[in-house]
Amino acid sequence: MIEAVTRLVPGVIGTPESHARESFSPPGLLDHPQYTRPRVFRGMAVPDVLLSGDHAAIERWRAEAARAKTRRNRPDLLGPEPIEGRT
Residue 35's domain is classified under what CATH number? Predict the structure, then answer.
């Protein structure tokens, strides 16, 4: 509770944009997977795109990974899937 309230105090979190990049951002999606060092841990490797330095590609990967994680763990957050052939 203390952390949640403290994060709302101006200056506690580096920039206002940091609040926008929380676990449920964009709304309705779970957060994308998080990786750290080493590059390979217990047989799991950091995806190459995250090491590429291509910020646009990284953002696309994060968005798709968030959608996939939400589809897998909380499909109720996504709503009904569109029917193929219909717009």
Answer: 1.10.1270.20
DSSP, collapsed to helix, strand or coil, labels residue 4 as helix
Reply yes or no on whether the pLDDT at 17 is more than 80: no
Residue owning tokens 């779970």: 30
Say if residue 69 is exposed, middle or buried (CB neighbours under 10 Å; 0-12, 13-18, 19+).
middle
- Residue 5 vs residues 11, 16, 46: alpha-carbon distances, Å: 13, 15, 33
- Give the count of domains, the chain: 1
Is 6 among the domain residues? no
Predicted confidence (pLDDT) per residue in 20-69, tens digit: 655 555 678 888 999 888 999 999 999 999 999 999 999 999 999 999 99
Distance CA 70, CA 79 (A): 11
Structure tokens at 20: 């926008």
22 assigned to some structural domain: yes
**34: containing domain:** 18-77
